[in-house]
Protein 1
Amino acid sequence: MNVLTKEARDRLWEEVREEFPHDETMQEVHFVRLVHFLQTKDLTPEERVKFFGQSEKADSIS
């Protein structure tokens, strides 16, 4: 998994604020989508499934 620097995350925020200047919800959705894309772009399909499956397990409440 690729790790994004604070500077890279700041640039992404600037980008999404420009694309959706009056919609905070769309800024957040687009930011997360870009972060996930950049974190997983070099992973195999199996690694990508594992990556997204881990967050599902962390979010579930037993």
Protein 2
Amino acid sequence: MMVLCEGLYGFDNASLWGIGKSESADLFSCKNGRKLGDTANDLIKISDSLNIIIVSTSNEIIKVSNQGKIVSSYQVKGPGHFLKKACNVNDSLIAITDLYGDKVYVFNHVAMSLDSLNITNLCAPDGIAYGEGYLVIANSGYGVFRKDELNAGTITIYDVNTKSSRFVKTGINPQNVTYDQSTKRWMIQYAHLTTMPDSTGGLVVLNQAFTELYHLRGQYMGTQVRKLEYIYALCGKSIIRINDSGSVLDTVLVNDTRNQWYRIGLIQNRLTICNARNYTLPGSVLLLNDQSTMIEREISVGVNPCVLIGVD
């Protein structure tokens, strides 16, 4: 497994860790003799042997092998950028959001070339996902900072074939988008605003026609994962299991520690938890049992682990 750790903004301590059967290690610095950078926000697989890391403050797109070795890199030049999230579009293209630049880029990781999509009036785009010819983009409004601007608190639905786009209202401060391939559904996670005590956040689930199927309120965090017939989500101090109709929510595991669980993932059909501890100390990855009801193993990694992927 490889684990991307965000680090702390301004501390230049993002890291990429590898986890084997019995140990973990900081792969990137070991393999490349340099730091990963400041605030790394996404890691996606682009093939069986290659991966892309998005480093936000330096606006660097880094292609690495499964061993963490740099294959090539690309840097977006100039001020006013903050690359945030990425998703695969096809075998050679990924889409990347620019939180500060109000843009979505298409990056050809074979040619190592960058272009931007012609989508006007994006508002602090954050999470992004691709499915069935559409890109769905979360317009976060950058939390409290731009929440009253045009298209804050919406998703943009962009048709890749026709190059047309439309905006659909969602909860305040949408941050993450998940596409569930098996049901062809979209899940939009939006967050709590500290200036609005009654805004708890939530999860909006849309069908293939982008019609709302159900809407759950709660302190949901990050993206969701499917395991067999259920969707699993991190909600506050608990992991929640949701059936496909959204009518049954079960709590499968409660965080009864002071640690801050930050994200969940799925590796070889087992749930994983990115444990950020207190968001300043080095964190860990928690591997759950087959039933997702208990922690079987804890592995130390860097500060603020946020994305975990399986590699060969």
Protein 3
Amino acid sequence: MKVFNPGVFQVKSDNQAAQKQQKQGKADSTSFSRILENASSVEKNVGIKGGSGLEPLGPVDALKPAQKDALAKGEEILGLLDHLARVLESPEMSGSATRSAVEAITSRLDELRLMRDGLDASDPLRQTLNEIGTVSVVEQVKITRGDYG
């Protein structure tokens, strides 16, 4: 009596179907360079600009004064968080330097909160400021708790 392994036959039939699809796909698809050309022509026609990261908020000139102030405060706190990271990474980490960085961040959080509350509820900058505040508070708690050393 001869026993056949049905799994072997299915694998062969799947391979044959896959080969047919690959052959058909080569005939049906366009080249990558053509797709890239189409995408770049659409980009030129629409006028998409890249790079600054402020496109969702609009051009910087179109921002309201409250938005500009809130953005500047957020950037200031991000700079302080970056300074705190450098202090924590330094081998001669001093507790006083860490505490002073945390105090500087904490003192600016109330200002950031007020500026955020002054923005429209639908303003996308509010979410960004919320995230900056959240990261700042988490780092403050970690340092107070002694997580870093």
Protein 4
Amino acid sequence: MDLRLCFENKAGVRIDEASVFRHYAENYLNGFNVEWGGSVSIPHHDTRTAPMEPLWQYLIRDASDACRDYLKEYLDRNPMAGYFVHVYECAPGSHDNKIH
């Protein structure tokens, strides 16, 4: 399975420059094998703030169950300052399933 991480900025926080956000996020996700995914939209019912798009995204390809479980635990224990992190499981041939 692949995991898709989408970063929704909290009110008053906005990094519009991709290279700046990449530096911030890749330091935050150090230790996970992530791939930059650019910007994306997610369903508005999944967001926590008024619709603010686009959201930045990262992918973890072929994630194991252990990686998925550790990622969720890491996000709960170590929230990213200024951002909500939405995580989706992506299985071939099916809709993305929000897991965090």
